[in-house]
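All the exercises in this workshop are built on plain-text protein records. Sequence and backbone structure share a record, each on its own labelled line. The structure tokens are whole numbers drawn from a learned vocabulary of backbone shapes. The record below serves as our worked example for the rest of this section.
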Amino acid sequence: MDTRMRGWQTSNGQLLVTARSLAAKTFRQADIPAIRGFAAAFAARAGMRTTQRTDFALAVSEAAACATSRGPCTARLWLWTAGSRTLCEISGDGVLLGPGPGGAGPGDVEALRRWLLRQLCDYVHIESDAQGVTVRFSMTVA
């Protein structure tokens, strides 16, 4: 688990917030461009500035790619706001491959996606198990 916001999650990584508005969508890997637009529209309704909307849409797009990168997967996107935060959870039935024994290599696209999410977001939690991949993150609305 990687987070810069200690105390905002339970022991299993669930975010501890009360939703003010919610948007949800089911998608497949080929739908990621549409998911990016869906996220940008949600961010605009949440009050994000143009540059932050772009960052939020990029983060959603990268998280969606993480959840659907291996195999013909179906994933579910949830977006919501709570206080000054905009939050995202994406769960997919794909597989997220971890870095090999030597760590991430120069061509490791999944490692680059995770790095980018950590640069853009206040909180990031990524987990992968036999049921699939779940990516959660949040950004402060500015």
About this structure: Strands lie at 2-3, 21-28, 74-82, 85-92, 123-129, 132-140. The chain has one domain: 28-96+109-140. Confidence is low (pLDDT under 50) at residues 1-11.
